Amino acid sequence: MQTKDPDQKAGGASTEGKKSLSLFQLRLRRFRRLKRGYYSFLLLLGLYILSFFLPFLMNNRALVVRYNGTYYFPALASYLHETFGYYERLGFFKDTVLSPQTFGIDSVLARTDYRKLQTDFAARGGDDFVLMPPIPYHPNEQFLDLGENPPNAPSRLHLMGTDDRGRDVFVRLAYGFRISMTFALIVTVISYLIGTLVGACLGYFGGWLDLIGLRLVEIWGAIPFLYTVIILCSLLEPSFLLLTLILSAFGWLGICYYIRGEFYREKSRDYVGAAIATGERDTTIIARYILPNALTPIIAFAPFAIVANILALVGLDFLGFGLPAPTPSWGELIGQGKANIREWHLVVFPLLVMFFTLQLVVFIGEAVREAFDPKVFSRLR
Amino acid sequence: MGAYFIRRFLLIIPTFIGVTMIAFFITRMVPGGPLDRAIMQFRMGAAMEGGADIAGAGGGQIPEAALQELKRAFDLDKPWYAAYALWLGKLARLDLGNSYQYREPVAGLVADRLPVSMYFGLLGFTLAYLICIPLGIVKALKHGSRFDFVSSAIVFVGYSIPGWAMGALLLVLFAGGQFYAWFPLGGFRSSAYDDLPAMVRQWEDIDQVSDEFGTFQWDQMSLRSRVIDQVHHTVLPVFCYMLGSFASLTVLMKNSLMENLGKDFVRTAFAKGLSPRRVVYLHTLRNSLIPIATGLGHALGVLMAGSYLIEYVFNIDGIGYLGYTAIVGRDYTVVMGILSINILLLLVGNIFSDMLYAMIDPRIRFE
Predict the structure, then answer these.
(1) Could you say which of A222, A319, A380 has the minimum Cβ distance to residue B19?
(2) Are the Cβ atoms of A341 and B26 closer than 8 angstroms?
(3) Which fold has domain B109-188+233-360?
């Protein structure tokens, strides 16, 4: 890039890295000025970081328990029911014939029900207390005591209702956000790496490698994606890792075609010819000379790749070939909504959350594209 | 350039063979194939008929001769490449084989469903172009206006919510969920008298539109009833089909026109004193339509294949749904049949698209 930057100080080869940095800074400044995209980015980033603290925000394990003067942190460690004195308080002694079930607990050795503990402590008064997360439900916890069979419509206890196994929809959507975003980010990065590598080699070396390589890429791209996913998921245990690999294995083709085209075009430019003439190695020319020029448009395209990957995961989950069963997932909820057509909350809320998330990503994408490639549409009228 | 396209057409052959070979290889490697299913059926049949004595005598083993017979029927007695060559040879004679599930020729199954998929595909495709091109033009001419802003919001919805997901929402809202029951739950047409819209039921007598066994005959209804019933089943799915290409098409049209409006030849045209209308519609628009028109080639595949997700949501028995059930049910002859048709359409569509490109834009030269 030969554009003069006012911030740029005069210098020789040592400012090589600085030069590209300042171009990046220029773009960053332009990106910040596009308010809609910039605030979308901040909001999405904030939500994503927040989602890693979900076990402390939405969980059925208490954050802090004070019992007999001692503090416990159940969100970080597991405690059994008897830790908090269920033996003595309920008048249950080891030598009686009474069983814990008599007192409405499954087992004294069961995991503590902190919501119950909270009401018990509150009823008893005293210094003991239980501090629950803002939403005291676990994504895989089933609520079957809501009066009617699940799915249950939204209520004060469960703002977005419960799904067909009685799990809280809002909590599952929140956990699903983290999974969808992480999944899409990983798949995008992997497919970009593969696509850039293969595309660069095909475009730079050309010739027979290009002809045969392109044929192989075309063959790979023509194999229906769903077909392979379903077949592979029946062979191997479907998991987050497997799905990531499969989607990456299919996601790099578009990037590969694009990078190949760019390299093909750039290769005939004078600066590449000069680099070859000065005896630079192929790897250097590919990575240091051409790649920075070819990479810009596909980086600007990355947010849209993320949208596509989220949608692919949602689609697979919807059909039932996605992440394994208890994983919180948007697509699975929409699938439940399709099966229970009278339960509007199973379709409307997942779609709203999905729409909101993807919209943020699209806004970011628009802004990034504009920052990277500011097209001024000058017109007469 | 003729030589270029001939070479492109010839290159279809290795690609086609490559894809089908990999797909065929996968079908042979995966458990749960037709042989396993046949064995399971045999066991279940034996358990039903023979009861205790056969089950007691070792769990209903298939006799060795029958097993060989079954293997021969599915070409499993040969190595996979030999079976593939056999399949390819049959394909060259346009024989796609028989479906395991339906016990019918695959070609017939596909031919039955093709009109259904094409009906929805073609309609959605045409409507998308009819709406998106004018919308894109208006948005480009009024760039930055309130109309541009508001319509952008709608376009964004189309981009963030895929057609099939919107389909699920539409079913909940308008197809007898908790809200309105304006439209049926799905299907291509009504398959029973009771499914007909109330208005049509008033016109049609149940005895008139049923055969002697009391089975509903759609074709015997009056033209008016048939049209209404068909439209009734069409609205929601076609909307979803449209949504898929709505956003990208509108934005493409808008950007393409805006880009051209800033070019020198437009300035010249204005400078000559032409009317704005003439400049936009005669000079600029023609150039801006080039990227839109080249998309027509790719649409070929989409049209024929249908969308398995939308067909799945609306229970439309089209090609996409057939392919989906075939994959799930391991009906490999059907899978391979649909796969080969789709690949051919995809490859031909790509070339077709490049040809269109070269035809519309004389500056483009393929060598």
Answers:
(1) A222
(2) no
(3) MetI-like fold (1.10.3720)
Alpha-helical (H) ranges within B2-105 are 2-29, 34-50, 52-56, 64-73, 80-92
Nearest CA in chain B to A336: B168
pTM of the model: 0.84
Question: What's A267's domain CATH number?
Answer: 1.10.3720.10
For the complex shown, is ipTM > 0.90?
Answer: no
CB pair distance less than 8 Å for B308 and A226: yes
Hey, which residues 188-247 in chain B have their CB within 8 Å of chain A? Answer: none
Judgement on whether residues A90 and A176 belong to the same structural domain of the protein = no
- Give the closest residue to B81 by CA, choosing from B15, B16, B30, B17: B17
Residue B276: closest CA among B293, B285, B252, A378:
B285
Sequence-distant contacts of B171-176: CB under 8 A, at least 24 apart:
B171/A338, B171/A341, B171/B236, B171/B313, B171/B314, B172/A337, B172/A341, B172/A344, B172/A347, B172/A348, B173/A344, B174/B236, B175/A341, B175/B236, B176/A341
Every domain of chain B with CATH number 1.10.3720.10 lies at: 109-188+233-360
The string of pLDDT tens digits covering residues A282-326 is 888 888 888 888 887 788 888 989 998 999 899 889 988 888 888
**Is the CB of A375 inside 8 Å of chain B's CB atoms?**
yes
Range of the domain at A318: 171-371
Q: Which of A132, A150, A179 is the endpoint of a domain?
A: A132
Chain A residues with CB inside 8 Å of B173's CB?
344
